[in-house]
Design goal:
single chain, alpha/beta, Rossmann fold, two-stranded parallel ribbon, globular, HST_MetA, acyltransferase, methionine biosynthesis, MetA_family, Class_I_gatase-like
């Protein structure tokens, strides 16, 4: 949230020089405030688990946020009760006539599947194109980040032979930017993906700013200059045991997964893993909501996209 202080206070110029958002009293007195409208397209198999994780992060801010859950269609889910989907989810086609402050598109367990073989690929493309003109800022997570890079920039799918699973160290860049305000120089973040995110390729073939990168796992956080599109290639929303559950799942499916990196104490899978990324995840979502959504979105959402 912005700090509200008297217009003439000397601290105003100092704080602004440090790229801290200051709202003078004269502006605050005339500011209209309303709840933010955030749409979540949940593509993960365990939808209840994922929606809970995301809403936990979205709630860590003084801003009032109205959340709407959507799916690509009414197709049955193997991991989520039909009753839950019918009660709490809408099909995308029922909300696309509206404007939204923020939009989150989750990952999906499709790392080894060619884009054109994803049954809802055409719908996904439609949704990404729709978001450009109907959403103030869209957050793409993991598989959705790779897929959106293909839709928007034409980046071809690149994959590792083995899944990058575990907790990886990332370096922060451009720390004066609001999206990474308060980040440490290096931070931990959980990854669970086959996708490659090569910094050289992204720098050469897109107009994105790279804000975090892992020497071992590639780009973690990137965004357009106006933050209309933000790409996160990992899962800051994960609970402490989510990577464990995925590891056990892959074992049961006969995939012979490698032990998640830097995850279990002493690399002993019988020990309880500890989350080392919660503070980073909360800060990232708070920064996104505040600086990329709240500070940028028009009060009247019907005005969104009219100048484009």
């Amino acid at each position: 949230m912005p700090i509200r202080i008297p217009d003439a206070l000397p601290a105003v110029d100092v704080l602004r020089s440090e790229n801290i958002f200051v709202m003078p009293e004269s502006k605050a007195m005339h500011q209209d405030i309303r709840p933010l409208k955030v749409l979540i397209l949940n593509l993960m198999p365990k939808k209840i688990e994922t929606e809970t994780q995301l809403m936990r992060l979205l709630s860590n801010t003084p801003l009032q946020v109205d959340v709407e859950l959507v799916r690509v269609d009414a197709r049955a889910s193997k991991n989520t009760p039909k009753e839950h989907l019918d009660e709490f989810y809408q099909d995308f086609d029922r909300v696309k006539s509206q404007k939204w402050d923020g939009f989150i598109i989750t990952g999906a367990p499709l790392g080894t599947v060619p884009f054109e073989d994803v049954y809802y690929w055409d719908k996904f493309v439609e949704i990404v194109e729709w978001s450009k003109h109907n959403v103030t800022s869209t957050l793409f997570l993991c598989w959705a980040a790779q897929a959106a890079l293909n839709v928007i920039y034409g980046l071809k799918k690149q994959s590792h032979e083995q899944k990058h699973s575990g907790v990886f160290e990332h370096q922060t860049f451009n720390q004066q930017h609001p999206l990474v305000r308060g980040f440490d120089d290096f931070f931990q973040a959980p990854l669970s993906r086959y996708a490659k995110f090569c910094p050289e390729q992204i720098a050469a073939q897109t107009d994105l700013n790279i804000f975090a990168n892992s020497a071992e796992a590639g780009v973690y956080l990137a965004a357009t200059t106006d933050c209309r599109q933000v790409y996160i290639t990992g899962h800051p929303e994960y609970d402490f045991d989510t990577l464990h559950d995925e590891y056990v799942r892959d074992q049961n499916e006969g995939l012979a997964p490698k032990l998640p990196i830097n995850y279990y104490p002493n690399d002993d899978e019988t020990q309880t893993p500890r989350a080392s990324w919660r503070s980073h995840g909360n800060l990232l979502y708070s920064n996104w909501l505040n600086y990329c959504v709240y500070q940028q979105t028009p009060y009247d959402l019907d005005q969104l996209g009219r100048t484009e």
